[in-house]
Amino acid sequence: MITDLIDLGPVPDAWKRRHLLGLEDLSAEELTLILDKATIFRKAIDEGHRKIPLLTGKTCVNLFFENSTRTRTSFSLAARRLGADTVDFSAGTSSLSKGETVIDTAKNIEAMGVDLVVVRHRTPGTPHLLSQNLDCSVVNAGDGPHEHPTQGLLDILTIRQRLGRVAGLTVAMVGDIAHSRTARSNIWGLKKLGAHVIVCGPSTLVSPRWQELGVEFSYSLDAILPRVDVLNLLRIQFERQFTRPFPSVREYATLYAMDRQRLAKTKDDILILAPGPINRGVEVTPDVADGAHSAILEQVTNGVAVRMAVLWLLAGRP
Ligand code: NCD
Predict the structure, then answer these.
(1) Which atom of ligand 1 is nearest to the CA of 181?
(2) How far away, in angstroms, is 138 Cα from ligand 1 center?
(3) Ligand 1 site, CB within 6 A
């Protein structure tokens, strides 16, 4: 049995959830459970197991109303590696353009016999709305600037693997905090697991009000560099902005791009993360993005393991 081989056991009784909508409402125990199971899946992937048929006979639909490279591919691969059938839905070619609502579209897809819906939508709360209207499990793959729970989980898994712990670390989220669902999911997850979080960026993209979430804020990357353990470099999300948040991309890069000079001011074992897609030369220079401190591609590999863990926990009971 492959399950014996990878030491997974059945879905634990302690796991009670049917949906994964965000990290805000997960407990430290639930977060740790997902990370522990993802670690087992990661090990299985590393050992070359391409098929771990724990979701055979289940059907998983990717309902993406926004563009995606990594997240959609990662969810598809995770479902297929677990033996589930997957279907990709693209908003551009759907009946949405004929006036159908998101709920009607989702209900029609569910009526075809679906166990899991993975949804990405520009409107915050869309996955929550679907979870109230569908019988199947719903996973949030990004709802506007609100949350992107599996991205938060894969970032935290990468930190735990590389640095051996999460509690007690100082993690800085840098850049477009205002529009980042990755920032929000990381904040909830990291804080619950005992890390100290700093949000850092220009005053148009981060404000002192973020302290209300229990995080520190800073406008100066250079000021915080010496005391951070992890830097998570966010993309400037121009597609979500209605006005220009700074005079020029060049000025932003001068103040916030992680480059070799800034790297020299950090701790020796600094960990550099980025959710991707990265804009080389804007939030990070190519030498740092591809350098020894960067775990950017490692994050992508962990993404598949995290999504396998989440899909299995949500749909893996007989
Ligand atoms: C992020 C997203 O779409 O929220 N990317 C991702 O899922 N890998 C961040 C981004 O687009 O910058």
Answers:
(1) 4
(2) 19
(3) 70-71, 142, 148, 151, 181-182, 235, 237, 275-276
Atom of ligand 1 nearest to the CA of 142: 4
Q: What is the CATH number of the domain that holds 97?
A: 3.40.50.1370
Which runs of consecutive H residues, i.e. helices, occur in the chain? Answer: 2-5, 28-46, 70-81, 102-110, 126-133, 149-163, 181-192, 221-224, 249-256, 260-263, 286-289, 296-315
Residue 308 in tokens = 């396998």
- Predicted TM-score of the model (pTM): 0.95
pLDDT digits (tens, 9 = 90+) for 17-39: 999 999 999 999 999 999 999 99
Domain that residue 137 falls in? 2-147+301-315
Q: How many domains does the chain have?
A: 2
Give residue-wise pLDDT tens across range 139-183.
Answer: 999 999 999 999 999 999 999 999 999 999 999 999 999 999 999
Q: Just list the catalytic residues.
A: 70-71, 98, 120, 148
